[in-house]
Write the structure tokens for this entry.
Amino acid sequence: MKYHSLTIRPNNIYVQESMENDTIIKSVSLTPCVEKDSIRSSLIATIDGQQTTICNLLTNKMESKILNIPVKQGVRIELRTEGVNEMDILFLEMDPHEVNTNEEETVYRTIQVPGNASHTVDEISARILNVSIAYTEEVVDGTSKVFMKSNGETTLLAELEIGRKECEVVDVLADAQMELVVEGPHAIDFLIVEGSKGGLLEDASCEVEDEQDTEDAQESTPQEEKNEEMIGGIVPETCQKGERKRKCPEETEEPEETQPQEEKKVKLSEAKKKESEEKVEETEIETQSMNIPQENAVVSDIKTISDGIGKIVGKKSFITAEYTVSSGENKKESFSEVVLVRRMADHAHLRYFSDVVKGAREGAVFKAEIKAADAHTEVVLNVGKIRTGQ
């Protein structure tokens, strides 16, 4: 496998007459230098003569996007941008021996469904790779929901909103006739692959799933269970049922231990005392840097600055959280700590991001604005590496 990068400038078109090898379009992002007043930059692809909007990037809100779109060997592809900003595109070229060649012919198809309309796809084997609000010169505000109806079931593929989230990688396989439905004012572009059930498509579509599965396997290891006990306090495993609610009153009685009972009690008392002091100190630091009373704080907005390009974060993942807290008095403090994602809801600052971090990727950046009657605070979180062996 080999990685390649490409920068597309405005009013320029990248053309590959025939892909030499099976390739995955991994991600797209704005270059570091962007026009000050720019709002939206669109990536437009023409695959085997069919044009579709791949994604719309939003300055200061969503400047990068993970794609994982497979492009088969021999396919002709054109890539261009709409807007005033340059775009960086990352490709992963597969080695021929890494791809299953005994597969059916792959046919790319693009469909544009107008707002508040539907379209029926008769192909019995099709994979929806990507959905995006179609590029238009006139932008209509509002939200559009995209549904797929198949086998009597209705599935919400994406909820797209102008200026916030205008594209989504869905990667859904339909094995029967399906109906694509748009509820909202926007025309939606669909990128669909027909007639292929394996090879590169599975390599691309399963990559995110493999990362999640690997992480799930790590989450269930005894070491991780031990880590959770360390974060929650020194609590015997036999005293727990589901989430930890209280400490067992008989936690010091372990007759099987060979360690003297009195010595063990002393160590346990010291550990509790140290843990209590650390918690008090942490609370004081967080209280000092947070001038808004928690009961009066209102989260006015949470923005995604960057999607990140690393592994997917699970609810039991330990991550390095680097965050800054800025108050209205031009006071700015920075923090860095390792946290358990599912316990972020109890954190003084990181609780605002507890719903968006799970499912995000390493390197993602989020910003929360918290307002109260007499104060305004801004918290910016940088999701660092997933930590193991805590």
